[in-house]
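User: Could you check the structure of this?
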Amino acid sequence: MHKHTIGLPGLLMILLLFNGCMPDDELSAPVNVNLYVVMGTNTPGINYVDFHNIAIAVQQIKFYGVRQEGSDIFFNSQPNAPYGIYAIRKDQSPPLINAFDIPQGVYNQMRWEIQTREIDDDYYEDYFDEELDEFIDVDDFGIIIEGKYTKLDGTQILLFIAIDPIEILLMETFDTGGNNQLSLLSGQSYNVRLEINPYVAIENIERSLLENAETDEEDDIYFIEISSDENEDLYERILFRLKNTVRAIIEEQ
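Assistant: Sure, the predicted C-alpha cells are below.
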C-alpha cells in the first residue's frame, strides 16, 4: 500500500472561510493527520451475521473544520486524481488512505466526506481469495461488504451488501471518549479512523427480512445480494442506517 502525503500548500484545494481576522503563525502551524478506513466491530446480539471484508474505491476526500480561533478550514483532494481501491479485512491492520497537514487549533467540528467510484474487477484477483465478480457485478459498486448469514436452520449463505458509487459518506469526528470538541497541537501526529460498521447498520433490521431475502446462485453456490438492483427494500434500510452511523475517530499517535 503506497502512501500519498498531501500538504495544504501542495495538492489540496484550500478555502479559508474568515471569521473576522487572519490566522497568525501559531494558528497556521501544521498538524500531521493520517487517515485510515476501518471496519467496525460486532455488537451484542448480532450473532447470525459475520462480515469478513469491505472493499471501497475512493474518488475524492473533503474536509471541513470549524475552529474556536482563526479561520475555518475546508479542503478537498483533486477530483481527477482518485486515491484507489482499499481492502479492509476483519482483524487486520487498516489501510492508510492518505496523510494530511491540518492547521492546529481547537475544533468545534471536524467532518470528512468520502466520495466513492466504481470498483475495478481486477482488484479482487489481487486482494481477495475469491473472485467476487463471479457472484456480483463488482464494477457497478463503490463499496462492497462481504460476509455470511446464518439462517435459522443453521445453514450459512454468502452475503454481499453492495453500495452504489453515487453515495457519499459524511463522517463527524470524535475522540475516543466520544467528544467532538478536539484539540490538535502542532508537533503531534494523529490517526483518524473512518469507521464503516455493517453490524450497526443491520442492528435494528428485522431478521425475518434477511431470512426471506431473495437469493441467487452461481455454480451451485447460493448467495444474497443486497443492492439497488437486488432486495431493494432491504438495501434502502441498510443504506440509511449505514450512512447515519459512519463516524471518524481521532487519537494521538
